[in-house]
Write a structure and sequence with these properties.
Elements lengths: L12 H7 L1 H6 L1 H7 L6 E5 L5 H8 L3 E6 L2 H9 L4 E3 L11 E7 L8 H11 E12 L5 H13 L15 H10 L3 E13 L4 H8 L1 H6 L4 H15 L3 E12 L3
Parallel strand pairs: 1-2, 1-4, 2-3, 4-5
Antiparallel strand pairs: 5-7, 6-7
């Protein structure tokens, strides 16, 4: 995750584990794209509480997870994951990893060019980077519904801190500029049922957004319920950007 000063991400690890379990579950396709091999050393960029990190380990690789959330790092370590608190853009690894992986993280990283260069540096020549993030149009209906409710109630949405939901072309340009080649990036529309409901999604996944809008804790449940009414279902309009690329040998 990127630095708090430049991102809308802020997490309660317990809430995330309860409400956001579907994120790791649906990240399985990106993990298959990575295809971790026994004996490889792999970097998990934005490991969160470590669910997918552990799945990489189960396939026989050695994994280091990094995340900028102290709450997530604590949860990952508690589950046995080798993890350090570090922002993606601040990584200083040099040709240490056979591959890198990232799920549901890069759209939180505002300093995207710096992060791309850091990931490139971390890989050995010929190393691959695979993963998934929010793509162009991701959660547009949900985000609009939340901002409308904030405005109605006199709060200013923190528009200066919006996520990076890239098109495949924009994403590829950033990573090609960092030095990557053979970039395959594509959008996947994936409407997703949120088991715990849209209101819980708002208070969990937009905690940082509500913090920056200076919404008091006592008003958040009401706002979240109003957003759920606007959306009218438990379906979140996710659009994912799935990718794989390689550092030249």
């Amino acid at each position: 995750m990127s630095a708090v000063a430049a991102s809308t991400s802020k997490w309660d690890a317990a809430d995330y584990a309860r409400v956001g379990g579907f994120v790791a579950e649906l990240g399985g396709a990106a993990l298959d794209l990575l295809d971790p091999q026994r004996g490889e050393r792999i970097l998990d960029v934005g490991c969160g509480e470590g669910t997918l990190t552990r799945k990489i380990v189960e396939r026989g690789a050695t994994v280091l997870g990094i995340d900028n959330s102290p709450e997530m790092i604590a949860a990952a370590r508690a589950s046995g994951v080798d993890a350090v608190q570090l922002a993606a853009e601040d990584m200083q690894f040099f040709a240490e990893f056979d591959a890198a992986f990232s799920n549901a993280t890069l759209h939180w990283v505002v300093q995207k060019e710096q992060a791309a260069r850091a990931i490139f540096r971390a890989l050995k020549p010929g190393g691959r980077f695979a993963g998934e993030m929010g793509g162009e149009g991701n959660l547009r209906k949900l985000r609009d519904a939340l901002d409308e409710e904030l405005i109605i109630r006199g709060y200013a949405p923190p528009l200066e801190a919006s996520n990076w939901y890239a098109s495949p072309e924009e994403f590829a340009a950033v990573y090609e500029a960092a030095g990557f080649r053979e970039i395959d990036a594509r959008l996947i529309e994936r409407p997703t049922k949120v088991e715990h409901g849209i209101a819980a999604w708002v208070t969990t996944f937009r905690k940082g957004w509500l913090d920056r809008a200076e919404v008091p804790e006592g008003e958040r449940a009401e706002i979240a319920a109003a957003v759920a009414d606007r959306v009218g279902s438990n379906i979140a309009d996710y659009v994912r950007l799935r990718f794989i690329m390689r550092k030249p040998a």
